[in-house]
């Protein structure tokens, strides 16, 4: 059974939203004394943000 294009787009959007929620929750915990330190996406970004 093939999925309709709208259903595929809906699933893709849900994946993106869930990823954004998880990332923001991880950053929120790191800012408020969480044990995990959020790692920058790449070394250049970390260097620019001064979190190296």
Could you spell the SSE succession in H and E letters? Answer: HH
CA-based shape:
elongated
The major pleated sheet works out as: none
Q: If helices are DSSP runs of H or I spanning 4 or more residues, what is the number of helices?
A: 2
Q: Give the overall average pLDDT.
A: 76
Report the span from N to C terminus: 49 Å
Uncertain segments of ≥5 residues (pLDDT<50)? Answer: none
What fraction, in percent, of the residue positions are helical?
Answer: 55-70%
Rg over CA atoms, rounded to whole Å, is 16 Å
DSSP E strands, number: 0
Strand-pairing-aware structural class: mainly alpha
Q: What portion of the residues fall into strands of 2 or more residues? A: under 5%
**Quaternary class:** single chain
List the helices and strands and how they pair.
Layout lengths: L4 H27 L11 H7 L3
Report what the structure shows.
Residues 1-52 are annotated as: Disordered. Residues 1-11 have a biased composition (Basic and acidic residues). Residues 25-52 have a biased composition (Low complexity). The chain is mainly α. The chain has two helices and no strands. The N and C termini lie far apart (49 Å).
């Amino acid at each position: 059974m093939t999925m309709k294009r709208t259903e595929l787009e809906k699933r893709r959007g849900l994946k993106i939203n869930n990823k954004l929620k998880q990332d923001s929750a991880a950053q929120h915990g790191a800012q408020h004394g969480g044990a995990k330190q959020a790692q920058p996406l790449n070394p250049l970004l970390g260097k620019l943000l001064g979190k190296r």
